[in-house]
Specification:
- By secondary structure, the chain is mainly α.
- It is built from 20 helices and 4 strands.
- The strands form 2 sheets. A two-stranded antiparallel ribbon has the order 1-2.
- The longest helix has about 35 residues.
- The chain starts with 12 loop residues before the first helix and ends with a helix.
Length: about 500
């Protein structure tokens, strides 16, 4: 696609600050939501632990900077709190492993990426292109966007609660259409910040409706929750302006429970987190394939899959130590790059620094938490939609008239959209399965197996497939020309 700013480009300082703020807004709702959900998980004694959203914001920022360092400033994507490990957090907290259980679990998950990075550095990454050619990675990337779509529509329909509301759907729709209008009809600068414009419009509409609802006593119009602002400023203290985030590692040290983590506990934590991290490898590769197609550079080759895995793994470990949640490459960030055409790495660096700085600024965190979920849902319609469409664009090079390819794509789409998961064992604490392979991972596994079956057990990269196709085409054209020449001689 045509980029307004390429990876190495440096927009003006004022523009960079606005672009970085847009990236922060795009990733922030989900990043802050994870620690809130973790704070609702009961321990074995029935209590709950507190995970600070501001600390998670700081962790996402520093984790992203670590990732950018390892990827040599070549991969413009932001790391944010991963939802994939929520079940693992619930399990270790339920077993009374506390803050240390969460931190050690994130450490195990990050080490999976580090070990895989070292393996790939030794054996190379060409096998990745053969294992996951466009016929597989295209529908998988599309599935990533489609699998997230339920979150966007749910936020629009219920505003993150339990009650269906046409009002919140209207607000979400206004947000989405404002993003569309800014992206299509705005000037050059506005086209680069459609999410700032759209979310700003949605926020103002929600604010006006809420004020009317409060004045007239109409519950359906009370969309915004001001409790975050109230808790920040009532009573007003220095902490209402500046507050050091409650870093998870500090809470873990203060809890003085590390001595209770014995060998058996370490084994349980490892068994809980490592399989999920292995499954997440597939999404890491898919995200970077997707980003590669957007910026038209093969990130699997340069800076290399080993470096992206190192950056993701170590960035997640460092970010998790501070924020209490494992990080992962964010589809929202990739979607933001795709829609705005801004792949400048300086934007991502500034966003990372901005998250770290603003995590200390209480009013900012409070205002971000005040943005209604229906507004973010409207924005995510665009973000997740672009992820899905970018996956479909990868399929343009695939001949779907060939049954071999058709069966592979069909297997991936049906099992992925249908939500086929693989569950093994029973977790005695949560009552759920000990290991769940997500629908996305299941679809990928079945897609790879189907691709092997239809190709007689052989793996071929896109380049090899294109070469074979070109050779067959040239042979047929040569035969056609030869036949015509014979007819002319007669």
């Amino acid at each position: 696609m045509k980029l307004m700013y390429d990876v190495e480009d440096r927009p003006q300082t004022s523009q960079t600050l606005i672009f970085a703020f847009q990236q922060m807004i795009a990733i922030m709702a989900a990043t802050l939501l994870v620690p809130m959900l973790m704070s609702s998980f009961a321990t074995g004694t029935g209590d709950t632990l507190s995970f600070d959203p501001a600390a998670a914001l700081f962790g996402a920022g520093i984790g992203s900077l670590v990732y950018i360092f390892f990827t040599q400033r070549k991969s413009p994507v932001f790391l944010g709190s991963s939802f994939t490990f929520l079940g693992a957090y619930a399990a270790v907290l339920g077993q009374n492993y506390g803050y240390w259980g969460v931190i050690l679990g994130i450490l195990f998950a990050g080490l999976v990426y580090v070990i895989m990075a070292l393996v790939i550095r030794a054996v190379g990454s060409e096998w990745v292109n053969k294992l996951m050619p466009a016929v597989i990675i295209g529908p998988i990337v599309a599935l990533i966007g489609l699998s997230l779509s339920g979150t966007a529509t749910s936020w629009m329909a219920t505003n993150g609660g339990a009650n269906y509301s046409l009002v919140t759907i209207l607000v979400g729709t206004i947000t989405f259409l404002s993003i569309v209008a800014a992206s299509i009809y705005g000037g050059k600068t506005v086209k680069l910040i459609p999410f700032v414009v759209g979310i700003g419009v949605g926020f103002l509409v929600a604010l006006v409706l809420t004020l009317i609802g409060n004045a007239a006593g109409i519950e359906a119009l009370k969309i915004m929750d001001f409790s975050f602002l109230q808790s920040a400023f009532s009573p007003f203290t220095l902490g209402s302006i500046i507050r050091v985030p409650q870093f998870t590692i500090i809470k873990a040290i203060q809890s003085n429970t590390l001595s209770s983590i014995d060998g058996a506990a370490l084994s349980n934590i490892a068994i809980t987190f490592i399989p999920i991290a292995v499954v997440e490898l597939a999404q890491h590769i898919a995200d970077h394939k997707n980003l590669s197609s957007i910026i038209e550079r093969d990130l699997i080759t340069d800076p290399g899959l080993d470096k992206t895995l190192l950056g993701d793994g170590i960035g997640s470990i460092i970010g998790g130590i501070f924020g209490g949640a494992a990080n992962t490459t964010y589809g929202e960030s990739i979607g933001c790059v795709a829609i705005t055409g801004n792949a400048s790495i300086i934007t991502i660096i500034t966003a990372g620094i901005g998250c770290m700085v603003l995590s200390f600024f209480t009013p900012f965190v409070a205002v971000i938490n005040t943005i209604p979920k229906c507004v973010m849902g409207g924005a995510c319609v665009a973000l997740y939609g672009f992820i899905a469409v970018s996956g479909l664009q990868m399929l343009k090079k695939v001949d779907l008239g060939n049954n071999k390819n058709l069966f592979v794509v069909s297997a991936i789409f049906v099992t992925g959209i249908g939500g086929l998961t693989l569950e093994f064992g029973t977790n005695n604490t949560t009552g759920g399965s000990l290991l769940t392979i997500t629908a996305l991972a299941t679809a990928l596994i079945l897609g790879i197996i189907t691709n092997l079956v239809v190709n007689g057990g052989k793996l071929q990269s896109d380049e090899e497939v294109d070469g074979i196709t070109a050779h067959v085409k040239s042979m047929s054209e040569a035969k056609f020309e030869d036949t015509n020449s014979k007819k002319k001689k007669k």
